[in-house]
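[SOLVED] Need 3D model of a two-part complex

Original post:
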Amino acid sequence: MKLSREKWEKNFSEWLDWVLKEAEIYDYGRYPVKGMGVWMPYGFKIRQNMLELIRKLLDSTGHEEVLFPLLIPEDLLKRESEHIRGFENEVYWVTKGGSEDLDVKLALRPTSETSITFMESLWIKSYKQLPKKYYQVVSVFRYETKATRPLIRLREVTSFKEAHTLHETYEDAAKQVEEAIGIYKKFFDELGIPYMLSKRPDWDKFAGAEYTIAFDTIMPDSRVLQIGTVHHLGQHFTKAFDFKIQRKDGSLDYPHQTSYGISDRVVAVLIAINGDDHGPIIHPSIAPIKVVIIPIPAKDEQIAQKVINYAREIAELLKSHDITVIIDDDMETTPGEKFYIWELKGVPLRIEIGPREMNNNTVFIKRRDTLEGKSVPKEKVVEEVRNLLDIMKKDLRERAYQFMRERIRYTEDLNEAKKILDEKAGVVEVPWCGENSCGLRLEEVTNARVLGIPLDENKDISNSKCIVCKKPAMSMLRLAKTY
Amino acid sequence: MKLSREKWEKNFSEWLDWVLKEAEIYDYGRYPVKGMGVWMPYGFKIRQNMLELIRKLLDSTGHEEVLFPLLIPEDLLKRESEHIRGFENEVYWVTKGGSEDLDVKLALRPTSETSITFMESLWIKSYKQLPKKYYQVVSVFRYETKATRPLIRLREVTSFKEAHTLHETYEDAAKQVEEAIGIYKKFFDELGIPYMLSKRPDWDKFAGAEYTIAFDTIMPDSRVLQIGTVHHLGQHFTKAFDFKIQRKDGSLDYPHQTSYGISDRVVAVLIAINGDDHGPIIHPSIAPIKVVIIPIPAKDEQIAQKVINYAREIAELLKSHDITVIIDDDMETTPGEKFYIWELKGVPLRIEIGPREMNNNTVFIKRRDTLEGKSVPKEKVVEEVRNLLDIMKKDLRERAYQFMRERIRYTEDLNEAKKILDEKAGVVEVPWCGENSCGLRLEEVTNARVLGIPLDENKDISNSKCIVCKKPAMSMLRLAKTY
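Solution:
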């Protein structure tokens, strides 16, 4: 069956607005503060399942969840100078309590490096306490001046999972960066989200970092979205807070840090990448409802009731095997209306049950991704549901990766790079000499953004020349039209 | 064994500060914004387990979790006039984004009736969609001018669970108040927290409510703490937002609402009520660690290693039965130091394992509440741990209820009421004519606060006179020195 992805690909922005609202995921644009929306119950569960997955991965690798205050006093936020320069234009400030002016302005946290480093300096005195790996899941605030977009560019980012770690040495922190990358890989893999891993260029690393590694993906409109970042912070913040620890050799020194985060964007991608013109396909790993059962009414009332009873029996069977299922037996809507709404909500599997199924002791199962269905005997329904959910995970992931790969192109010609980016967006990979000046020039000429050096590809560029200056290439560089 | 509760009862405030900091629950007073603290990993887990319990109770009664924005525009917050009068002196205002002044001041939510009612007016059109029961777990902010206290009177309340429900009629909403009370009773009962249920007097109900029912408890210093409230909001907010629905009879009318909340105070009470001079006793229902195993070292290294192996075996055994356990085999601290820290952290059960236990195939289990221990054969350890945890729940609850009941006194004499409250604090119950003027006079004379009419007692007051005006009593009234 040929799937329709017209609206999804051509009018992605409208498609996303439509899905978030109509599937009751995230009400955006109607709450009377720009850039802030409301998680509705169905969306909240998707978000919660996503967060549960990352929590599990973090907890099992020695991370400890904490919760720091939302408000950061001005002097604390400004302690690290590069950091505040990177954020000062987008900080919201609390200046009043009741009718009084506050003595000290309080920032709504844009991120928490400063407050966490300050408290760590009270808690941690010795290498024996290290490594320390904290994380929290909080709202962060950015007074974005660019156009805001639901879940993608918000002024209140409500699902910021930020991890902050502390280490004795630079190398230990570098190793932690690798661990964090491994955790995020597992996380995105489990969710079937394809990603590119790039080392951000110097001029685009996190404000206050030694270096930044980023996860990017390609959205349905072929533009690139950053979905996770990992920063090696070195001693930037510990020096700013004059925070020393006792090292193994007895000396006192500033410890090294990393931080890494993901956000609401993960939900945006989850909804976006597996979509079609019927709506999203919620990934089975985090779908709040795995199966919806729709009884097909019979004209004869007695038979209709028997069908419903049979449907309930199937629902109980699935529930007893820990498969989340709901049965939509509302009498006032037609099966057609029900199909529409549950496809729009992206429930992975739909089971239709009519008199024929009841008489044959079967059910009819339809996959949301392919919209293909088949008849299954009742005694095999649990096995088949599990099996189909697994196949869907695999298929969704493959399809999403294929979509992304088709949008990554290689060229050594500057004009062609510009042309591809202008006409097709996606990602262009080019050979690069390693000089910042050539990277910046590249951004200027193509009117695109450098994502950085690919960390997940091994193309042989030993005979290639820098796309800008024609000196020998040192590495590839990724360029994209980004969100 | 006589337990020592000297520090706990006499210097409760210091005791609480000491426990929160030294047991690494909640770091308070060092973060550089007054009234805001940091949940440390151990405290975060206690908080999380508490929240998980209330979520389970709410989810199973048809409540749906949502997440609304933190920021409420000034005009939205001011729409209901009684409401804003009740809160306006304690609202934090965001007035700047970057270096720009915002066009509209944004409040950090003090509570969410206004924003939720506004969105409900977009979502809900008909009685067919009712009842609706939403809840969220969020930070709320109060610019408290009274002395702040950790977890008890905060400027950032980080664990506000607020529920908001919508109904066709006043009666439906009144029934919802009853359901909410039932849910909170189950919640506090499961946590072993004793409570009094009172209908708050008119002059102390929630700003914008028809009436307010409150749960109060008595803290170790004999002062009363409000730990939960349930409000019938009537049509106050729906009228303010001109929000009508279609009723069953076809007419349009404003729907009725309730709201109810609990907060960080539940954690404060959990830690406080079961304390002694060694620290808190974390209630088994929410203890992040149920059992700590402490191997007692032997001089002979080989034997010491065997003891540790045996201890690990016991730990695995408990884990395999879903009992959260940790083994403290740090070689650099003595058993005495370990006893101190784990008692301070309030882990319900401690298992000591030395050469004797290993040779006899036994373990030595000690209860944190009574500090009594006994030897148990290895094959009975899972059963005995479960059994002891159950007994502890019962005993803790009984002890806490006894403590509270001893501090509730009855008098019909105004001077005596004042004397009791001044000298012993606690709660005094008095007969009352039902007039607000007498209630307010009572507060003035006793310099205490009226908690309201008891809903959980049936004392016969048919022959009693109002303690103030001496007219016939209509009901009892509770009075207390409160937090």
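Edit: The CA atoms of residues 392 and 432 of chain A lie 39 Å apart.
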